[in-house]
Amino acid sequence: MDNGFTRALALLACIGFLVFGIIRIGVGGGLLAQSMGMLHYSEFASAIADTSEFLAMSSERSLFAFSVQGYLAYIVAMGVVVTIGAIGALRRKSWGVKLIALYLAMHAALFANYLTINPKIWYLVVGIVLCALIAAVRKPKPA
């Protein structure tokens, strides 16, 4: 399984997780800052309204009810975890894949919390496959 194609695919997966994490931090951080009154971008207003509506509609069936700020902080935390994990995986550190797996567990926890399955489940499925590929191909370098 460890051939040039799979190594390139695993490298691209690491870079993809890194970019995705940075975007999650940036957008999530912006939304969080706006929800706290620190920013005002019209582009963020509808996303915050949608998030607020989703949280309100889901509050009765959720295991843990998030506030808008709590939910957005969780999204930012997920971004931090996957970004650091991707950096570790790119550097072939054993903790890199573990942090990517933690990010995937945090993602799965949101589905479990809201007792729902939606099309975003495919991001999770693809993420699990890519994490397994990274774990199989980008093994830690010996010290």
Layout of SSEs?
Blueprint: H1 4-35, H2 42-58, H3 68-90, H4 94-114, H5 121-137
Helix pairs in contact: 1-2, 1-3, 1-5, 3-4, 4-5
Protein described:
This protein is mostly helical and 143 residues long. The chain has one domain (4-137). It has helices at residues 4-35, 42-58, 68-90, 94-114, 121-137. The chain starts with a helix and ends in a 6-residue tail after the last helix. The model has no long low-confidence stretch (mean pLDDT 94).
Largest sheet: none
User: What is the overall pLDDT average?
Assistant: 94
Q: Please, how many helices?
A: 5
| Low-confidence blocks of residues | none
Residue share in β-strands: under 5%
Alpha carbon gyration radius: 17 Å
Could you estimate the helical fraction of the residues in percent? over 70%
The number of domains is 1
The count of β-strands is 0
Structural class, by secondary structure, is mainly alpha
Keywords: Membrane, Transmembrane, Transmembrane helix
Transmembrane segments: 9-33, 71-90, 97-115, 121-137
What are its keywords?
5 helices; membrane; mainly alpha; single chain; 77% helix; transmembrane helix; transmembrane
